[in-house]
Specification:
Length: about 375
Amino acid sequence: MRRGKNCGLLIAGGGVAGCFAALAMARLRPEAAMVLVGEEVRFGGGSGMLVLDAGLSAEERDLLRPVVARSWDACYVALPSRSRKLKLASHLVTTEAIHQAVADALPDRCARNAKVVAIRDDSLLLPGGESIAGTGALDARGWAQQTTLEIAWRHRTARTCRFADPHRVDLPVLADLTLETGGCGHFTCIPIDGHTLRIERIDYSRSSEGGADGPDRIEDYVGRRRWHDGEPRKAESSSRPIALGGDFAAYWRIGGARVAKLGARGGFSHPFTGSALPDALRTGLALTRQSDLSGAALHDLFEAEAAALWKRREYYRGVNRLLLDRGAPALAALYDLDSSLLERFFAEQLGLFDRRKILAALGG
């Protein structure tokens, strides 16, 4: 980083929002000066993720393609009443691939393990009072703990297991609700190869404290599925905020009234899964179409986009409240809907009849 000089576009945050903003600019606006500053040791966020293809445009798929490890054209859902195969395409994205893509695309325009103390509309403040100056800045550092929103949480515990015998899971298991004992949650299984599975325990809760029993529940799940002689790796745990309501305009002013924000910090995350990746693709491409990269212009662009998304996603916040109130039976009812309706649900392309049908299934 060229401290003391104008470095052009400044992107703070090495998670998916910051990385895809930088990767989109490197591909489509290679002439633009830019610096990506990540606070973690690696770029790309904490762990790999399953991304549903529903709702992605051709341009978004093209931006995602270099970091996709595997793709499938369908997935399974296991319910207490039946098991289903859904025509929902999905992709496995690994943080290793994101990290490598950033290193290849921005070899001299990125820095990691660099603490950012504060962000102004055209500069980043580093420890010790040093700063990086630029044309405009984007804050993509992840969820801001202080909030004016009503929040629920999606707690996730993940473990990658390699088994001596083939696990015989040929497609991702989007949701397995057959072993539930209460609450609102499910298991997810992602096949890495014929002997390796990434198993995730997902729990939805109104409490920020949750998921502590995730490793034990995964171990129990593996045993009850009769997968033996596994070599489990250490479990990873994370929590994503799921918005239920609140003062979104006030939330956007937290951390700097005129600083542009991306990712969960800016309210850019899927309203049901909490994943920042689908919105990260869209905001990254929107950034490449912006001719004015000044801090003020970036703020106005992404504040307007975030406000429009918040309004459009009000229905999903109502669905989230129903699921939290009614627990696993409502979650099972959601995943029991027909495949095309679920695809529109995840793609955020619901019609009025679709919305009524979902609410009726959930008892709303």
